[in-house]
Specification:
- It is built from six helices and no strands.
- With about 110 residues, the chain is mainly α.
- The termini are far apart.
Length: about 110
């Protein structure tokens, strides 16, 4: 990945300036590339990037290190038989973002 190599050569700020993106966007690219290197047993090398992007799309509250390692282990065990790209996107559907609960004050029972 060009951005990853560029960060190693010139640093984060200079690499982001050369690529015309923000440092935050560059950090996301580097994080996805780091995660994609853990997917080792896939037939297509580009599929590792797809898996990493989908996994990074899961809510940060649900994306604990143990969840990441479990998904990586599962994909690496079944990597040769995972031919479709539907399964990575189903991970994000199975792990929806937690819902926010709206609280009102005072409670409705107290308004009487």
């Amino acid at each position: 990945m060009v951005a990853y190599s560029l960060v190693d050569l010139v640093g984060r700020a200079s690499a982001a300036n050369i690529l015309g993106i923000t440092v935050r966007e560059l950090d996301k690219l580097v994080e996805v590339f780091d995660l994609s290197e853990k997917f080792t047993s896939l037939r297509n090398p580009g599929a590792a990037i797809t898996w990493a992007r989908e996994l990074m799309g899961v809510s940060k509250k649900l994306l604990t290190p143990s969840v990441v390692e479990a998904v990586v282990r599962k994909v690496n065990l079944e990597g040769r038989s995972l031919g479709s790209k539907r399964w990575p996107s189903s991970v994000t559907r199975r792990c929806p973002a937690p819902r926010k609960v709206a609280y009102t004050w005072p409670a409705p029972e107290m308004n009487r």
